[in-house]
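Quarterly update from the structural biology core.
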Amino acid sequence: GTPRWASSMPKQELDSLRKTNADGYSVIPGAGWAGTAAYPPSNMADFEGFLRQMFKRYKGKITAYECWNEPDTTHFKGNAEQYVEMLKTMYRVLKEEDPGAILVGGVGSGYPPWNTKIFGMGAGSSMDALSIHPYCMLDPIDDYHKGALGQFETFVKEKEKELGHPLPVWA
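Predicted structure, tokenized:
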């Protein structure tokens, strides 16, 4: 998620969330998806600078990073274009600072429509692995037989051909 100082949450909404805790300090309730962290960064240069420092600090210690959790849901207050911009920035900076680390993208629960959309914007060339969350389905086995996971399998094979290399799937 995005820290408050970098969040693109509209000022009016941000101001409406301000509360004062028992010690008199201004606080914003809601961690993660409920607060400012659900919004994409307001300034990509700030995001890039943050990523660069993080990747330098944890080089060789963290082997894989994920670009947002379920950006196709209300966990992300941005849109597909903003997600792809974040993904591309993250991938470029990661490969500059820690080329051996893996970037996991996609990370959706509403596939294949979400993945079709982001891959159409060039997301496939900015990830080392594609993540899906099949546990979001009520019955993944039944959904497979109905076609959702089967469609996803076909989608991945098509994208691998377009990309010219395997695209590992993480669940």
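The chain has a mean pLDDT of 83.
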